[in-house]
Amino acid sequence: MNVREYYHYLAAAREQLWQFVRALPQEDLDRDLIGSGERFHNIKDLLLHITDVENHWIHVIARDDGVRPPHERPYNWVRPQAQQHDLNWILSYSQEVTHKTERFLDSAPELERPVKLVQDDPASATVTLDQLLWHVMTHEVRHTAQIAMMVRQLGHTPPWLDYLRFARPAAPLGGKDLAEEHDLAEESGRCEGGAAGREGEEVA
């Protein structure tokens, strides 16, 4: 699998996540679920952080063409305190970064070209563009899993965002596809409250 294919999956998965969080109560999105965290405390913090990291590494560092977040109010990207921002503002910024990354990858960039991690430091470490892109994508996967866990802490069932949902093979004639199998497993876990439920929590 190449970078462009994997990013296409991530973009589809994040769209599903965005649709899901739009339906959550505002107080759930702002609730501090990581009390001991130094930087991030709630779901909106992590949504904003995922986009900031993609914008920084791909568009500011690798391309010198970063996206300026839509003006609302200044924020510290290290400690975003995203409860001060409307969810629609965060998602609008995220959509703009997503579209910009998709256009960049569609242009077939040279993935082996070197990228300095600190542009104004002659001694800065250098990686390939391919390595930087994979860093950004795996960073998102890690924090998306964290968001899914927080959603469960709030008593909700997060959407199924695994890769095979978006690249699933056709179901056998008369059989169930992977999405149906997952939904049945989730329902079984809720009804039985036993091992199936615990397993579902670990996977998501």
TrEMBL record:
<feature type="binding site">
    <location>
        <position position="139"/>
    </location>
    <ligand>
        <name>a divalent metal cation</name>
    </ligand>
</feature>
<feature type="compositionally biased region" description="Basic and acidic residues">
    <location>
        <begin position="177"/>
        <end position="190"/>
    </location>
</feature>
<comment type="similarity">
    <text>Belongs to the DinB family.</text>
</comment>
<dbReference type="GO" id="GO:0046872">
    <property type="term" value="F:metal ion binding"/>
</dbReference>
<feature type="binding site">
    <location>
        <position position="49"/>
    </location>
    <ligand>
        <name>a divalent metal cation</name>
    </ligand>
</feature>
<protein>
    <submittedName>
        <fullName>Damage-inducible protein DinB</fullName>
    </submittedName>
</protein>
<dbReference type="InterPro" id="IPR007837">
    <property type="entry name" value="DinB"/>
</dbReference>
<dbReference type="Pfam" id="PF05163">
    <property type="entry name" value="DinB"/>
</dbReference>
<feature type="region of interest" description="Disordered">
    <location>
        <begin position="177"/>
        <end position="204"/>
    </location>
</feature>
<keyword id="KW-0479">Metal-binding</keyword>
<feature type="binding site">
    <location>
        <position position="143"/>
    </location>
    <ligand>
        <name>a divalent metal cation</name>
    </ligand>
</feature>
<dbReference type="InterPro" id="IPR034660">
    <property type="entry name" value="DinB/YfiT-like"/>
</dbReference>
